[in-house]
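Hey, I'm writing a tutorial for new members on how sequence and structure tokens pair up, and I'd like a real worked example in the thread rather than a made-up one. If someone can provide the structure for the chain below, I'll link this post from the tutorial.
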Amino acid sequence: MSTPSGSATLPERLVSLDAFRGLTMLFMASSGFGIAQIAKAHPDSGFWELLRYNTSHATWIGGGAWDMIQPSFMFMVGMALAFSSSRRNAEGQDQKKLFLHTVWRAFVLVALGVFLTTGSTNKQPVFGFHNVLAQIGLGYVFLTLLVGRGWKVQLGVIGLIAVATWTAFALTPIAGPATDYKALGITSPDQVLGGFWAHWNMNANFAASFDQWFLNLFPCEKPFVFDKGGYQTLNFVPSLITMILGLMAGENLRSEKTPGEKLKWLLKAGGICLALALVTGTTICPVIKKLWTP
């Protein structure tokens, strides 16, 4: 749904995207409404437990509504890109300048991500790349290369990323029985998976091993060992899938289809993604938002 510009100088707005963005930001700003703290006073209440689960991050596996905030932003980046790219192309903007603008925007996003990770208490920059701004920046240039490529190419890239990511984790050796998980920041049994799923254990997986090498290449006060939340730099690779899905949704909304056909496409695509998540999440790969599992 969009509204007329009302002026030749104002761009057309996608009201549904603006509403989605606003609701997501409002939910994030609420900090969970303090419901998680209230729920602690009612440990035997199923109602309060349900609210707590959906207004706080999952310990490791699974996820509730609160865990959908970052994926929502990533999805919206893809949707917005479909519209902004179309507008810039319609204006006849130089493609080389557009690409340089994209690279610059990606750099700024990553830099802002590092700035926010550093905060005001650290004496030197903290080079962490797992927050939403840095993750968007790391994948943004790759995302722009898929604009207008067609759904077959876009789905092909999604499949390639999903298979490559899963394979990298699955082929990484599982931590041995003598592993001191407390030394890796693990405080709950829920963060230690058994069997094949142990390839996705918190701070003992492929992406964690990468960060233990990569982040120590940057100047730091002390060597990087683990992220206390289990988030990893390489999350930007599978999260690119979410942004591509947003791009596909945006291009669908920009198409010549009728409103009914567009809605049908969105519902069908959402149903397929949900079904795939349910199947893979109970068979070959645990659903872990903090690793952005495929």
